[in-house]
Amino acid sequence: PAPAGLPGEPDPEEAVSDDSSRHGGRVRGFPHERGNWATHVYLPYIAQEEFLELLELLVSRARTYVPSLAAMEEFHLSLSQCVVLRYHWIEPFVRSLRERLAAFHRFFCVADKVKVYTNQNKTRTFIGLEVSAGHFQLLELVSEVDGVLEEFDLPTFYKDPSFHISLAWCVGDLSGRLEGQCLQELQ
Question: Where is this region: Disordered (predicted)?
């Protein structure tokens, strides 16, 4: 058990207000609880000017099918699901990740196929660029990340992941509008 008085311990008099309008209408996959920290492991992608031009072109075209589509502002490639860490787990979790991933070297990755995704509970739809090269190396990274998640009794990554960089999102399951003709145009 954790010692009393850790930062983030809930105060019984404090009620948590979860207003989805404060974060673009997104719906939480699990309820907010003081002392819990939602996180995920990912590889950051720093967008260059050409990428941002492509993003603008794709989002502009896709908005003719789904006007509420919002372009991502930061880009990454996920290596884990969103998981919940207790405050006192953060440091050992990060330390374990560093130890397991220290031996990995850089590798080449290509994300070049437009694909439509929805999250697990179908509350958001995404347009992403699926990875076509580097998949094997990403699976090796995920295997190590999964090992750390298992140490903390947290859910591991998807069994057969579709590695991708999300480009844009909208609230709800609007995959039907984005697949088919729209997806062909985007590709």
Answer: 1-29
Give the C-alpha separation, 32 to 17, whole Å.
9
Domain ranges of the chain: 32-186
Query: Which CATH architecture best describes the domain 32-186?
Result: Alpha-Beta Complex (3.90)
Block residue for tokens 């002392």: 35
Average pLDDT over residues 53-66: 97
The DSSP symbol for 15 reads P
Only one residue has tokens 């440091």, namely 91
d(CA 163, CA 131): 6
> What is the per-residue pLDDT for 1?
42
Whether residue 3 has pLDDT greater than 80: no
- Beta strands 83-86; 36-39: pairing state: antiparallel
Q: What is the DSSP string of 93-158?
A: HHHHHHHHHTT------EEEEEEEEE-TTSSEEEEEEEEEESHHHHHHHHHHHHHHHHHTT-----
pLDDT for 19 equals 53
Catalytic residue positions, numbered: 76, 164
**Two tokens at 95?**
């330390």
Alpha-carbon span 5 to 71, nearest angstrom? 41
| Chain CA centroid to CA 101, Å | 19
Report the distance separating Cα 170 and Cα 118, nearest Å.
10
